[in-house]
Structures are given as structure tokens and as C-alpha cells.
Request: fold
Amino acid sequence: MEYAAWKLFIDTAELGSLSKVAVAYGTSQPNISRRISELEQECGGRLFQRTGRGVVLTELGQRIAPKVRAWLASSEQLVNDVRNSAATPIGKVRIGSLPSTAHPLVSTLHKRLKERYPLIQLAVREGQGAQLETWLEDGSVDLAILYRTGGSPKNGDTYLVETSTYLVSAVGDPLTSRPTVRFSALHNLPLVLFCRPSSWRNHLEQISAERRVSLNVALEADSLTLQTHIVSEGGIYALLGPYAVAAASKDCRLQSSKLVDPVVTRHIALAMSRHGHLTLACRTVMQITREIAKSGVAALRQKR
Reply:
């Protein structure tokens, strides 16, 4: 069971198609199928289930995939460390990020790394909270930039920036015409919120229950673009952070007011995968990300 066989296993799991893997490897589909069958024989069980659309991991495949990803990442970093000085970070760092924080935080991170650590390669995937948590859990990403609602960081998280929550509407809406709006104004207000599972929705519902405010979820949508475009047409509202509002305002005519009484805060956090060990490249990316947040550069200042 050599490195190449396990690399093929992970590539097949991610692409979900033997024909796509064959194209990526520059070989034939029967050859890929034969190599996977050989690996399955050595494992003593089926790793993939063939479907009409391609292949999916079996229960055995799902169970070992996180460990294989971690081992591959560790092996790649070992090669990099052998080839280069231990003081020179090198290798790929996989980051999951919320769309609202991918720019400017991740773009600033990329620029800083390019200037100071050009041998580090970023691989960035965008997703919502629940999806980012899944990627961290199964080892698909090394780090994730996501929202946390707890007052103190846990499980090795680092809190980078604290942000408030804004009620967002179409331009001209009287409810958001002032700088702030009370939380009680959300009572039965038609809202568009992120789909479940969502720790953010759970947090809002907990506050609502304590305040005896009824949340009227008129629409569920995980896409920030969809949320803000629908809100800009009027008649429905969103609850978003300052980065999402600032980014969407470039394409949509929006108006927003900060929620108060209570102020609903969240933290942009840097979280680590629970699988494998942190490579030198990962630790360097974490350090630079903290520096960006601490320095208070314009890209990370809270837009109010």
C-alpha cells in the first residue's frame, strides 16, 4: 500500500468518477479500476460503491478517508521538510472560509504569504458554517475561518475579530433608516436565514426565545448572493455581518441597521482540523492570519 495508491484513493473519492480520474491521471478508466481493485484486495474490503453517476465511498472508505488524508498531508510535508530547511515553510495549506470573509481576509493572507513565504500554496474552499465544520471533521481542510457565537474560544480556536449583526433591507425601508434597530423589531418580520443545520440560527432562536420574539423565517438560502438580491427587491429582511453587507452593497442597493438591545455579536474564528498534526506551513499561515487581524489593516476593520 504505497503513497500513490492512497493518493489515487483520495482523488477518486473527491472526483467521484473513474473516468474523471483517468483523465486527470492521463490513463484509461480500466487501468484506474484495476488499481483501485488491487487496493481494495489489500484492504480486505470494498472502498467504493459503483453507482449510475460514478463512485461513492463505502462505509469502510468513509471511515478511513480522514486518516488517509492526514497521512498524505504528513507525507507530503515530510518530503518538503527533507528537501528544504526546517526554517523554510513549504507545502499546501487547505483553508475553508465563509464567503463573507474570503475577501478581504483570505486575499490579504494570500498577498502576505506571496511576499514572505512564496513556497506556501493556499487551497481555499468556500462554504457555510455546517459545511466548514464537516470539512474540519473529515480532514478535507487544515484550517477554517468561520463564525463562532461563544464568548470564549474552544478546541484550539483563535478569535480574530468580533463583529456585530445588522438587519438588512432594501434601500428606503423605514425600519432600517436609522443607525440602530432594537432586536424586538424582528418579531414576525419576514426573514431570509441560512438553512439548517446552522449554529447561527440556533443562536438567534435562543436569543429570540429569551426575548419572546417570534422569528418569521420566510425563506431559507445558504447563498449570500441570493439572500442579498432578494432582500434588495424589498419585502424581506436578512441578518448579516458587516463584511457580507459591505460586499453585497457593491452589487445591490441595500440599507442596514445595527441590532441592539441586545447587540448580537459573533467572532470570526480560526479553527483547526481535528485530524493529523499541524505542519510548519499550517502554523505559519495561522501566525500570519493572526498578524493580519491584530494589525487592524483596513481589510479587517469592522465596517459599520
